[in-house]
Amino acid sequence: MGAVILSAATSVVLAIVLPIVAIIVGFAAGFAIYHFALKRKTDRSKQLASKMVEEAIVEAKKLRKDAVVEGKEEVKRERSAFENEKREHNAELQRSEQRLQQRESSLDKKESMLEKKEATLDAKLENVETLKN
């Protein structure tokens, strides 16, 4: 009978302890699985964030390079436009200068003609004066 009581007591203890141990082991396993899954998710998130940062850096470098190229092209266009405007302005100045030189030459010729006419008139007037006297 002593063995039966011991066996019954052991059965009762086992019936109480085994479920408690199973619950503790289940909680521990669940916690470990949850922690592992959380770590994996965190690692994936970090990898994704790292990849996104790398892609953003590459994109930023590309955008910067494109902006530099576009800026250089804009400077080139502006310089070309300025040079064209400068050439046109210089050509207009040369045309104006040429017109002024032609006008000056024309005025010089008119002045020379007027001086000759004046000299001729003076000579004629002198002739008339001489003939009068």
From TrEMBL:
The UniProt record lists the Ribonuclease Y N-terminal domain at: 15-129
Q: Native species of this protein?
A: Candidatus Protoclostridium stercorigallinarum
Q: Which Pfam families match?
A: RNase_Y_N
Identify the stretch annotated as signal peptide in this record: none
Keyword Ubl conjugation found: no
Keywords of the record, alphabetical order, are: Membrane, Transmembrane, Transmembrane helix
User: What is the official name of this protein in its record?
Assistant: DUF3552 domain-containing protein
Q: Does the keyword Membrane apply?
A: yes
Q: Which residues cross the membrane?
A: 12-37
Q: Which InterPro entries match?
A: RNase_Y_N
Q: Where is this region: Disordered?
A: 78-115
